[in-house]
Structures are given as structure tokens and as C-alpha cells.
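Margin note: ligand = NAP.
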Amino acid sequence: MQAYLVTSDGGPDAIERVERPDPGGDGGPGPGEVLVSMRAASLNFRDTIVAAGGYPRNDSFPCVPLSDGAGVVDAIGEGVTNFAVGDRVVNTFFRDWIAGDPTEQEMRSSYGGGIDGVLAERVLFPERALLPIPEHLSFEEAACLPCAAVTAWQALFVKGDLTAGQSVLCLGTGGVSTIALQLAKAAGATVYITSSSDEKLERAKELGADGTVNYKTTPDWHKEVRKLTDGRGVDHVVEVGGPGTLEKSMRACALNGHIGLIGVLTGTSGAVNPLPCVFERLSIDGIYVGSRQMFAALNRHLSANAIRPVIDRTFGFDEAIDAYKHLQSGSHFGKVVVTIGG
Ligand SMILES: NC(=O)c1ccc[n+]([C@@H]2O[C@H](COP(=O)([O-])OP(=O)(O)OC[C@H]3O[C@@H](n4cnc5c(N)ncnc54)[C@H](OP(=O)(O)O)[C@@H]3O)[C@@H](O)[C@H]2O)c1
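Resulting structure:
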């Protein structure tokens, strides 16, 4: 079977396409295992970090890339009770983080980083690392969920305890932020979003954004967010920028606000004044994707509200490296997907 392999820290161009033994070829799935024919995988900013080396805790070469996949069950091993041949399934980001607070070992089990990922024609999963695909979603849409959507879910609903009527600020229009917008709107929140592109902000309005700010033409975007909220500030920030945005995110927050600290799109160094966090009684939670239990709760929310993740562009299996480059260009709105087999 065909798969892609990250063998060095040389970035997307160094990723190799290889022939690998079929994981179902040698006696089929073992006890508790499920063999899946992959149909789609999605890319996350994280996958560009893995390809360049230096992804914390989960950084071993060679490694099949990408954490987020969806496909069809081909065969099941002894003792598998939750899935049957032909079922449509999506995998969790962490193979071993089921529920509760994760252990160090569970955190080392991220697909496409710590362990081989899903950019392959067939993958063998333990039963616990799979969930049924919500009925209204395609394989491509389901493949958008394991990292970006579970992260947004944990930030807003698990750590943030978001309730109807609260306000949310999403930064940029990448994979995490667009699904965060959709999840929060469906829960009855008022949602503000920033982008470097007015055209993307128009698309965000179509998705339900109540207020938008262009962070390129309005560098003090936090002040604009305060204006949009009649000076109060927002209850939640989906913070994907890191040092270049964190202080402004704090200043965009209402008293007692919450920041889900998720990403480092602006890099990993730079001065941040923490005082607004103190004087506004803010809570900041570090978010690292989430557990299987969180993913299951997310799926119930998606089904109840018929939410479909936004796919910017779909690439064929042959074009996987182009998909990386498209993500790196930053021109996307929502998710970038690779289709597999079919
Ligand atoms: N902790 C976790 O578990 C976790 C999980 C998922 C992602 N992440 C992290 O979260 C970040 C986003 O990931 P992603 O997969 O959603 O990335 P992505 O899809 O590649 O999103 C990129 C988008 O972010 C926006 N952006 C870039 N610089 C920005 C800035 N200074 N201010 C506001 N927006 C900015 C841009 O939107 P516009 O084009 O609209 O300007 C860009 O298109 C990454 O750092 C990623 O590593 C962390």
C-alpha cells in the first residue's frame, strides 16, 4: 500500500511517498484492532511543524504524517464490539487519551507525530482510537474534526464552560478558528472574528460572525473588539496567535474572561505584559487538542446542530505535498483536505 513518510526535518518537499506493507496483509487485525481503508485526511498547521522538526514530545522520524483521518472499516479483530465491516469511522488525535486528565504516555500517542499517522491507504487502529462519523458528514468533513474541532471544543466548552448569550473572539480564519465560530454560534454565543482579509471576513459573516475586524488594517484590533462589545470585552478568546497576539487578546477580554491558549502562529518568542490577566481576573488555559470523550461530545453538538466544517480545498492523494504548500500559503479559509483511495 501507498503512504507518505516524514523522514527528516526538511519540510514538505522532503516528505517521501513510499510503498509499505499492507497493515491488513499479515493475518488481519489483532485482538481489539480495526483495519480502516482511509478516504480522507486533513492538514493542520501542526503538520508543517512536524515536517520541519521540533514538534514537542511527538517528534520521531520516520513517521507517516497527519493526525486527522476518516475512512471505512475493512476488517475487525477479535473482541471488537463497537464497529463492523463497512462502518464509517474517524480517528482520535491521541491514540491513547480516552478521558479525564491525560498521562505523559497518553500525550505521546499523537497520530502523525509521536506515532505513525493517517496519510496512508490503510491504517490499523485500536478500537478505542475510533469514533463513528456523524451521519450528516462526508469523509472529507469528518477528517476535519480530530485536531482543529476537538481543540476548539475543549477551549470553549470544556475549559471555557461557554453558555448561550456569552461572547467569543476567534483569531484568523484557519481551521481552528472557523470551526470555533460555528460551534459557538450554534451554542447561542455572539462571535467576533479577525482576519487579514476583508474577503475572508465576508465569508465569516456568512458563517454567522456577528462582528469582524481586519487585523492588518486595524493593528489595534483589540480596541475595535471592545468597541463592538460596547466597551465590555469578550467572555472567551480562541487564542491561536501566541506572543504576537496574546496581550491584545487579554485586552479584548471582559472582566473574568477566559482565554483558550492554543497556538503560536506569530512564533514562540516576544514580550507579553501579563498585567491585564491580573487586573481583569482572566483565566488562561493551555489547550492541547482533547480526549476521545471530548470528541464524542463534540460529535453530539455537530449532529444536533447539523454543523459541517468548512473545507477550503480538497487535494488528491497524489497532490498531498501541494496541500501542505497551500496550507503554508495562508490563503485558505477553514480546512485543507487530501482525499485517499475511494
Ligand atoms: N494546542 C492545540 O491543541 C492546537 C490544535 C490545533 C492548532 N493549534 C495551533 O493553533 C494555530 C492555528 O492552527 P490551524 O491549524 O487552525 O492553522 P491554519 O488553519 O493554518 O490557520 C492559519 C490562519 O491563521 C490566521 N493568522 C495567522 N497569523 C495571524 C495573526 N497574527 N493574527 C490572527 N490570525 C492569524 C490566518 O488567518 P487569515 O488568513 O484570516 O488572516 C491564517 O490563514 C497553530 O499555531 C497551531 O499549531 C494548536
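Residues 44-46, 147-148, 151, 171-176, 194-197, 200, 215, 240-241, 244-245, 262-266, 287-289, 327, 330 surround NAP (CB under 6 Å).
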